[in-house]
Structures are given as C-alpha cells and as structure tokens.
Amino acid sequence: MAIFRFYSQMGIEIDIEIDTTVIYDYDGSEIYPDLLPKPSLCVICKKDDRGGIDEIQCVLTRVGQREGNNFECHRYEPKFKR
C-alpha cells in the first residue's frame, strides 16, 4: 500500500491509499511487481525500491518493455556517482 497526499484548489488535504501489490495491464490482466523480472539497470538505480509513485512508475516502465530485448529507462539515476 502507498499513500499519496494531494491538495485541492481550496487547500484541503486529501490522502489516497493505493494498493501497489497488484497493478493492472491495459487489457485488465493482473501484474504482480514482485514476479516481474528486474533489469540490471533498475538494480543500480537510485529509485529502485523507493516505494510510492516511483515504484509504480518503475513497474509500468518494466511492464511496457517486458517483450523487448533492450531495456531503456528515461527516469534512471545512478545510485552512486563516480
């Protein structure tokens, strides 16, 4: 579960809880992030296992490219700088 906090135009805080253990594909099929292969680029990324919206975006990026041979991520940030 992840909790996201939003603010309405009237300044009211709204917390929304989202179940991140199951994500649904475009055709309605369930995708379990824990069973999805994680490319090596993800393992060395600063956003790996960060949770919240970062986790959802990372999972969706991997889902979108799971059939391809070359994985690309435009959100990649290295964990360690040289």
Can you describe what's shown?
- This protein has 82 residues and is α+β, with helices and mostly antiparallel strands.
- The protein has helices at 40-43, 52-64; strands at residues 2-7, 13-18, 23-24, 30-31.
- It has a two-stranded antiparallel ribbon with strand order 1-2. Strands 3-4 form a two-stranded antiparallel sheet.
- The chain starts with a strand and ends in an 18-residue tail after the last helix.
- The model has no long low-confidence stretch (mean pLDDT 80).
How much of the sequence is in beta strands? 15-25%
Shape: globular
> Which sequence of SSEs, written as H and E, runs from N to C?
EEEEHH
Please state how the strands of the largest beta sheet are arranged side by side: 1-2
Q: Class by helix and strand content?
A: alpha+beta
> Major β-sheet, in short?
2 strands, antiparallel
Number of strands: 4
Question: Helical percent range?
Answer: 10-25%
Number of helices: 2
Taking the alpha carbons of the first and last residues, their distance comes to 34 Å
Average pLDDT confidence is 80
Rg, rounded, reads 15 Å
Flag low-confidence runs: none
